[in-house]
Structures are given as structure tokens and as C-alpha cells.
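We give the chain.
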Amino acid sequence: MIPVNEPVVGAREMEYVEECLKTGWISSAGRFISEFEKTWANYCGVEYGIAVSNGTLALQVALRVIELEPGDEVIMPSFTIISCALGVLYNDAIPVLVDCDPVTWCIDVSQIEEKITDRIRSILEAVGDPVEIIVVDDDSPDGTWSIVKELDDPRIKVIRREGTRGLATAIHRGIIESRGELVGWMDADMSMPADRLPIMIELTEQYPVVVGSRYVDGGMDDRPQFRVVTSRMINWLAGVVLGGGIQDYDSGFIMLRREVFDRVTLLPIGYGAYFIDFLHTCRKKGVNVLEIPYALVDRTRGSSKSMP
């Protein structure tokens, strides 16, 4: 067996352990923790350092401070340990596994581009021309905006936002930049089927707003149980507070006529609250909303900033 790591424990380490035990501070505080935090902060050239109990928690804290939005996706190598994925999940983000290079055993960076552009290709194939895709990227470290720009397709417009984050604001920006008589948005992670778009587009001739729904007959939510239960609780609460009429208040999969925005304003706030408010306002103002079934699958590919 090849050990992952072999600790080096010498006489100095044994002395420190003995000293720590004698002080009675074996957890939560004590001289060694404060000295370690200060020394580490100095080494990194920062003001503060935080000691944690294990590597999983260290990953969780590191991801928390970069202010991930719920549903953001973090690309990581498939050859890794569960702690890396757990750190992402604890922050309500989605781990996206990319295969490793068989020579280096490191992430195959050439596959990252494929993960980002798959959603765009699926939309172009499903909808055909004329079509317009607006990609709003919050200056992702993986260079999403640059990868999409290299596609050099006149049907695709790339907006790189620096210093701004958020799902609802990205969708709002995409709506402003779009020019078509029909406007739609969906997740960019291949969890929503692009082949439903032609049907949704056709139905806008009869209904101003068409929503992909997991909770009407024929719909399905095929994600991990925790996410399914959480989403159902949100929809149950929205139904109790706002009234019936909508089955999937936080769908996020929609196609509508642009003229709807003359009567209903999309509020660029929050993560899922914007969609709940939008559908509720549509109903209050008498805008007909049709829900059609689709199957939502777990997020395993793509990037949540590829498509508003």
C-alpha cells in the first residue's frame, strides 16, 4: 500500500504535545493555537489566520470567504477525496467533476471548455435559427467569458461582469441585453432539457408565460433527496403564503413574450425569490402562466454562469 501521507513526528513535536497536555488546553484555545494562527498569517502576508479542526472544515471556510452564490458550480478533478466535494456542498454550491489527465493525474483543463460550452451547443441544436444567447459571466476564475467568446458566433453575446455577483442580477442584465420578441432562461449545467425549448416557444403563441415544472403531471425532480425535499418545502410555503395556481414557484426554467415585461417587473434580487415574485405578480395582474412538465436531473456538468 502507498500511504497518502506519513506524518513526521520527532522529539520537538513530542515536547510540544506534552507541554500542551500539561497546560490543560487540549481543544478550542491555548497558546499553541494563537501562535499557529499568528505565524501562519505572517507567512501568508495577511492580517488574520484561522485554525480549524480538519481539512474538510478548512475547505468549507475557504469557499465561504469567496462568497459563492447558492447553486454556483465549482469545477474539480474527478481524482480527489470526498472532502473536496463536501466543502462545496456545505456552501450550497455544486461540485462539477472533470476527468484527470492520465499522465499527470491532474485535472484535464481541455475538458473544462467542454463543460462550459455544452449548454450553448444544446440550445443551438434544439432551437435553431433565429436564436440569440446572452452569456453573463461574473468574471469566473475558469475564464468562462473568454472560452465562450472564442466560439466567435454572432448569435452569442458575452457579458463579463467584474465586481458584481448574483443570479437574479445576471438574468436581469441578460433580459436588458436581449433583443428577441421571446425571452427565456434556464440553468447552464445540463440539468434542464434544452429539447423542451421548442415546445415552450410554440406554446407562447397561446400563453404569454410558459414555465417548465417539476410538479405538474409528468414532471419529475431527480436530484438528491435533500435538494428535492428543500425545493418542495419552498414551494409548499410559497403556495400557503401566496395562494395556489402555481405548482413550481422556484422552477427557474421559463419562456415568455417580451411584452410581459410591460406589465410585470422582474426584481433583480436574491437567488430564488426573484422567480417566486415574478410568477406571483404575473398571476396578480392576470397574465396567463402555463406549466409544462419536465424532468430535472442532478447538476453534473456545465457552469451556472454560462447562460442567464
User: Anything to note?
Assistant: The chain is about 40% helix and 15% strand. Residues 110-127 form the longest helix (18 residues). Residues 40 and 46 are 9 Å apart (CA to CA).
